[in-house]
Amino acid sequence: MAKRGKDARHQITLECTEAPGTSRYSTTKNRRNTTDRLELMKYNPVLRKHTLHREIK
């Protein structure tokens, strides 16, 4: 199936909230379905525990 002009999925960056700048992840999200900022629990290797990561601009 061919892709159309505008794609609903966009690449985003997730950054740790407990220690900003130490851990970042990149992923994609559908902006039509999820309009607010994404928050996920991800592993921070510097702190060696799972922390809250929020979408950054």
Task: Itemize the secondary structure elements and their pairings.
Layout lengths: L8 E8 L7 E7 L8 E6 L4 E8 L1
Antiparallel strand pairs: 1-2, 1-4, 3-4
Structure notes:
The protein is built from no helices and 4 strands. The chain has 57 residues and is mainly β. It has a single domain, classed as Ribosomal protein L33 (Rubrerythrin, domain 2), CATH 2.20.28. A hairpin with a 7-residue loop joins strand 1 and strand 2. The relative contact order is 0.32.
Helix content: under 10%
The dominant shape is: elongated
Widest sheet: strand order? 2-1-4-3
CATH topology: Rubrerythrin, domain 2
The end-to-end distance, rounded to whole angstroms, is 31 Å
The name of the CATH superfamily reads: Ribosomal protein L33
Short précis:
The chain is an all-beta fold and 57 residues long. The chain has no helices and four strands. The chain has a single domain (9-56), classed as Rubrerythrin, domain 2, CATH 2.20.28.120.
List keywords for this structure.
57 residues; mainly beta; four-stranded antiparallel beta sheet; 0% helix; 51% strand
